[in-house]
Specification:
Pfam family, one: Response_reg
Number of domains: 1
Protein name: Response regulator receiver protein
Keywords: Phosphoprotein
Strand order of the largest sheet: 2-1-3-4-5
CATH class: Alpha Beta
Number of helices: 5
Helix content: 40-55%
GO biological process, one term: phosphorelay signal transduction system
Order of helices and strands: EHEHEHEHEH
CATH topology: Rossmann fold
InterPro entries: CheY-like_superfamily, Sig_transdc_resp-reg_receiver
Distance between the termini: 30 Å
Radius of gyration: 17 Å
Length: 146
């Protein structure tokens, strides 16, 4: 099974620690790396453009904003998902985030279970897609018998 690789952009160490633990234990998601600023996040996601499946981004960061991270990653691969996780999930922020390329927006105080469910669904989708790709490869390249 392919590992579901996640990058977290969060400037609060306690929130980061709790989120990483919940993602690992409940959603079986591996957090590969994290950062606390817009510039670090944008640079990491660009440098590793083919090596992540999900970015979970806080709105307010130590430097910059999550909206800036979303804007910097608009040209990602279709299978790469970005979600905004914030205490300020107002209708305006939700609309703006989606306009900048967010696949979903979750409120930290009321929608963490929804975020974890989203991650579980994405993990299952990746596994299913990987299985279909393997099956296509087997069917298009049958083994030769000697």
């Amino acid at each position: 099974m392919e590992t579901f690789i996640t990058y977290v952009v969060e400037d609060n160490p306690t929130v980061l620690s709790n989120l990483v633990e919940a993602l690992s234990e409940i959603a079986h998601v591996k957090v590969t790396a994290h950062s606390a600023t817009q510039s670090e996040a944008s640079q990491w996601l660009e440098r590793h453009h083919a090596h992540w499946h999900l970015a979970i981004v806080d709105l307010f960061l130590k430097q910059g904003t999550g909206l800036g991270v979303l804007a910097a990653c608009r040209n990602r691969q279709p299978h790469q998902k970005m979600v905004l996780l914030t205490n300020y999930a107002t209708p305006e922020i939700r609309l703006r985030s989606v306009a900048l390329g967010a696949d979903a927006v979750f409120d930290k105080s009321t929608e963490l279970d929804d975020l974890l469910l989203y991650c579980i669904k994405q993990t299952h989708k990746l596994t299913q897609d990987h299985g279909q790709e393997t099956q296509r490869n087997v069917l298009s390249h049958p083994r030769q018998s000697n």
